[in-house]
Amino acid sequence: MPEDRNLPEVLVPALRSALIKLSRGEAAKASIARALRALAAFARTFRVTYNDVEFGMGTEPGLADSGDLDADLADLIAIVGEAARDRRTAVVLYIDEIQYVQEPQLAALIMAIHAAGQAQLPVTAVAAGLPQILGKMGRAKSYAERLFEFVSIDRLDPDAARQALRSPIEREDVLIDDDALEEIVTQTQGYPYFLQKWGQQAWDVAKDSPIRLGDVRQASSSAIADLDDSFFRVRFDRLTPREKLYLQAMGELGPGPHRSGDIARRLGRPVTSEAPTRMNLIAKGMIYSPAHGDNAFTVPLFDAYMRRIMPMREA
User: Fold this and answer.
1) Cross-strand bridge partners of residue 50
2) Among residues 127, 156, 210, 292, which one has the fewest Cβ atoms lying within 10 Å of its Cβ?
3) Number of domains in the chain
4) Burial grade of 193 (CB within 10 A; 0-12, 13-18, 19 or more)
5) pTM, entire model
6) Cis-peptide into 168, omega within 30 deg
7) Do 32 and 114 belong to one domain?
8) What average pLDDT does this structure show over 135-145?
9) Which residues contact 71 (CB under 8 A, 6 or more apart)?
């Protein structure tokens, strides 16, 4: 789900692809043709284009074309589910970065999936996103917490982090010293992408087996520089000057979480004046609120990056 797109723009091409796959063969051609007409009507109603070209399929009056997203998306998902049922298969919507779906559109999607489930149609959704999605889905539809199963995918615990590093190394008949392994686990805080980055750099630095603590310490400089130039920089460059100052204050306070009042005091401003900046940073996926009034970075080590990119000021 791109940050600057509407849900219908993202759903229509994906559903079109799914329906075309379902249309192969002779079974259920009538229901699939009806689903394609419903999709065309939905796309036309919500002005969806694909590769700058409007969908040219035939439509059926009164089918997913009222202009009410709640009703039309529910109709569309139901008709797609009927087509899948007739083909004795299922349709699953996989949506990444779902936190970027606007709340009214998220509410419509939740309603559509709920209605399909009540009708026992084989269509459902699997989504992933930043921690704020649980609260956002609850605000969109209060029954979302009962409709979906929410699974937290967080940093690896130390044992899992060690295994994630040791297993691929040993498959190549190479060893890693225990203290070198512990250094990587400590530096990365168990964040999966960082484990990959440190593991790669340590592998490249080491001249022979086993990989030693000195190799890891040398690799850490390269790993951090690489993250600064890519992973962190991409996020930093999306920020406004005021948002950068807010994160600078958070970085100065340490890893966090931090109270909104503490951040505002660091900035020398009232809490209320910083509330819009905080909400913008949450919307951009830079921070999240693990508890009321608390703020934490969505990725570890970002506080240290902020201190490198924006040196600390006097308190």
Assistant:
1) 53
2) 292
3) 3
4) exposed
5) 0.78
6) no
7) yes
8) 89
9) none
